[in-house]
Amino acid sequence: MNAPLEHPVVAEPRWRERGFLRSLGPAYWTELPAQPLPEVHWVARSDTLAAELGLSDWLRSDRALQVLSGNAAPHERSPLASVYSGHQFGVWAGQLGDGRALLLGEIDSPIGAQEIQLKGSGLTPYSRMGDGRAVLRSSIREFLCSEAMHHLGIPTTRALAVIGSPAPVMRENVETAAVVTRVAPSFLRFGHFEHFAHTADDVAALRRLVDAVIERFHPECRDAPVPLLAWLEVVARRTARLIAQWQAVGFCHGVMNTDNLSILGLTIDYGPFGFLDGFDPMHICNHSDHQGRYAYARQPGIAWWNLNALAQALVPALDDAVPDNAQALGEALEPFKAEFGSSIQRLLRAKLGLATERDDDGALIDGLLRLMAAERTDYTIALRRLAEFSCTDGAANDRVRDLFIDRAAFDAWAARYAQRLRDEHSVDAERGPRMNVVNPKFVLRNHLAEQAIRRAQDGDFAETQRLLAVLQRPFDEQPEHEAYAGFPPDWAQQLEVSCSS
Question: Which residue intervals of 442-493 are DSSP H helices?
Fold first, then answer.
């Protein structure tokens, strides 16, 4: 007789005994299990991230399905919900926290220690008036955008999987439940520090948090005269570079509250986000943002505002030996301005294919953006087509020229651009490919996400996985997926996303 077939042994994730958050102590979190969901099923998985984590086989197992849906415990310790506070839409909101997220724990992986978090796994002590759940619609959006941003080269939390369930969840209408698995070195936000400064009024806990973050993530700051100030400058610079990358790719976060900014300079909390279609500096992607606080052009200023809120929270933690705490903290933030300015100029020069730096580059870049803003020219398509621009063959410029109604205005700008390229002896055949590795052909436009969502709501998850594959190669031509790079359809103008998205 043949021996019975044995199921292959699938290695479990290497869970750390005490991850970073757990090691801080119970003042920073509440321990509780996830709430199970019925009839769970896979919606989407990031095989790329799974491979990076060394979890390719595990992610395809039923064990992973149960763990990442919250239906099974990954180890003997219960998950953690973290407490934090924050400013929402510029108003102090007091205590917030992980209202629908649970940290399963921290794993060792080939890309370093990573926290594994479930979003949508049920009520926590910080849910306030919420139900602790996430819906399929918002979960697919976060999954796709997390991975899309990573492959665009923008620092971000990652998404390993989406798991669905027929369990009903009430939003504007009844929707079905889903859980996103999020991955990051840490999910700490500005609001964690605000909590212990303003809500808990616990200076010892605040200082412990600062010291632990420096020790774990920025040990190079330990030897500075004042480690906290050195660390805050690192945070300011990282935040500046992140926002510059958002602006350069046309990404709108939509809800830049202090509890939604990562202390590590990662894009975090994908809710009412959006990529620009027609270029509109005052585009508001969040239907709930009635005052336009988080409009695209205001994102750098809001990041600066949030950094100042963080600095204010750190005043009690600063050593008494520093003569003027507020002034010292403000000086630590100052590098944000120069860092953002140099970063955005560097990124935009690269997008225009400029290999050298000239004093009047800012005016040249601004001229193009003003043209695009006047006509709501498609941001992604225009910059991608600009790679075809020729200094010598005017006919080669027709495809980008055709994007502008005011041809004379474009021609005037194009003449300046062509001269600038000639001044640095730019070669068309070399410049075009260089521009195509910084100007994506594919971004997660709202209508693409919406098409995947509608199919998923009908039980067809193939489009979500297909769209993920396209977004993982945003700079490649992918002629077989040309439709994903086209202009948004008219119906896309009616799409709205809000904080419930």
Answer: 446-457, 462-471
CA distance 175 to 195: 33
**The one-letter amino acid at 416:** R
Instruction: Please confirm, yes or no, whether 259 is among the known catalytic residues.
Output: yes
Taking alpha carbons only, the member of 390, 381, 394 closest to residue 443 is 381
Angle separating helix axes 428-436 and 335-351, nearest 10 degrees: 130
CA angle 246, 247, 250 (to 5 degrees): 85
The answer to whether 72 and 64 have CB atoms below 8 angstroms apart is no
Q: What is the CA radius of gyration of the chain?
A: 24
Helix, strand, coil fractions of the chain, as percent rounded to 5: 45, 15, 40
Structure tokens at 432: 């075009």
pLDDT value for 500: 56
Segment among 54-68, 391-405, 443-457 with least mean pLDDT: 391-405
The Cα 444–Cα 135 span in angstroms is 19
Query: In this structure, are residues 47 and 56 in contact, taking their beta carbons and an 8 Å threshold?
Result: yes
Report the C-alpha gap between 151 and 156 in whole angstroms: 10
Q: How many CB atoms are closer than 10 A to CB 211? A: 15
Per-residue pLDDT of 346-404, as tens digits, reads 999 999 999 999 999 999 999 999 999 999 999 999 999 999 999 988 888 999 999 99
Is the CB of residue 142 less than 8 Å from the CB of residue 120?
Answer: no
Between CA 87 and CA 97, with CA 91 as vertex, the angle to 5 degrees is 35
Least confident of 10-19, 73-82, 456-465, 488-497: 488-497
The answer to whether the beta carbons of residues 266 and 308 sit under 8 Å apart is no
Q: What is the pLDDT of residues 286-317, one digit of tens each?
A: 999 999 999 999 999 999 999 999 999 999 99
Catalytic residue among 98, 259, 277, 289: 259
pLDDT tens for 201-225 read 999 999 999 999 999 999 999 999 9
